[in-house]
Amino acid sequence: MLSGGARRVNIKDVAREAGVSPTTVSHALNARGQVDAQTRARVEKAALKLGYRPNRHAQRLRTGEAHMIVLLSSMPFAVAGGPSRLGFMMEIAAVAAAAALDRSLALVLAPPMENGKVPLELLEVDGALVIEPSAGDANLEYLKRRGLPVVAIGKPYGAREAVPHVDIHSRETTRLLLDHFHAQGARKVAMILGSAQRNSYVQARAAYEEFAGEHGQQVLLATADEAQGEGGGEEAAAAFLATHPDIDAFCVPVDAFAVGAVRAIRAAGRHIPDDVMVATRYDGLRARTCDPPLTAVDLHLDEVAHQAIDLLFDHLRGDTSRRSASGPMAQLVARQSSVRRG
C-alpha cells in the first residue's frame, strides 16, 4: 500500500520495478510457470520494496475458488456484547452466512472488541460487511487502505469517500418511537444517544429535534460513552430525572443504554410505564428480556442482510455501479415499557 491514501500498488508497478512482464510477476509470486531463480528473486525484491500485496479476491475470482468475507461491528463490547452478543450482529450473521454460501462466499464472524477495533491484519479476507461504522472508524479505514470491497450496514458517517451501504432508515425509525410516545400521552420526552459520531445517532437527533419543535417541547438530549454500556445509560437517565423530574418518556436507541435507563427510573422511585415510558431501537434479546420488556422496532434484519450480501457480491465481481440499497422500513413492536393502561 502506498502511503498518504494513494492507490494500491498493483502487479504492473512490480513488473515495471523488476523490469519484467506482469505475467512473469504473477508466475513468480504464485509459483506458476517457468521462472528462473534469479528472476524470481528480482520480482520478490521489487514486491517487497513497493509493499505489494496480491489481490486475493481477484485471484479467487479467476480460479473459481470460494471467497472469504468478514462481518464485524464497530460497536465496543460493552454495547455489542452481553445479551446483544446474540442480538443485532448475530441476527445479521445467521442470514448473511447462508446467503453468502449461495454465492460461494464463506463468512467469518469477527467478535466485538473492548475498544471496537478488530485485528483484521490476522485475517486474509476478500471483502467485508461493517455494521454502522462511525466517523474515522478504524476497521473501515483499514479495509479501505487494503483496497478491499466493503459494504456498510447503515450509512457510514463522515466517510471521505462514498462507501457502499444499506440504508436502515434511522431517522424514520426514531420517529416511529417518538410518535408512539406522543400517542400514549407523553409530553416531555428525553433522548439518550451514544457520543460516537455515527450516522444513526445524527439521524435520531434530527428526528427528535423535529418532533420537539412540532410539539413545542424542550429538547432534552444527553450522550453517553458507548464503552460504558448499561452504566452509561443509567448515569444519563439518573441525571435527567434529578434535574427534570417531570420527564415522562425516554427514547434510547442503544439497547444497552435503555436497560440502564430502566434501572435509573426504578432507583428514582418511578414506575414504568405509568410515570416514565422507555423505548429502544433494536427489537433484540436485551429489549425482550428487560423487566419490563422494552418497546422497540423490527428492523427486518433478515432482508437487510440479504441486501448487504447482494451488494458486496456485486463489488467482489467488479460491478461497482450500485452504491447503495434501501432497507425495508421498520415496524413498531409495542411492549409493556410504553403502553399505559386505561
Keywords, please?
single chain, 342 residues, six-stranded mixed β-sheet
Task: Give an overview in words.
This protein has 342 residues and is an alpha/beta fold. 42% of the residues lie in helices and 16% in strands. It is built from 13 helices and twelve strands. The protein has helices at residues 11-18, 22-29, 37-50, 56-63, 77-80, 88-101, 138-145, 170-183, 199-214, 230-243, 255-267, 285-289, 301-316; strands spanning 67-73, 105-109, 127-131, 150-153, 165-167, 189-194, 220-224, 249-251, 277-282, 295-298, 324-326, 331-333. It has a six-stranded parallel sheet with strand order 2-1-3-4-5-11, with helices on both faces. Strand 9 (277-282), helix 12 (285-289) and strand 10 form a beta-alpha-beta unit. It starts with 10 loop residues before the first helix and ends in a 9-residue tail after the last strand.
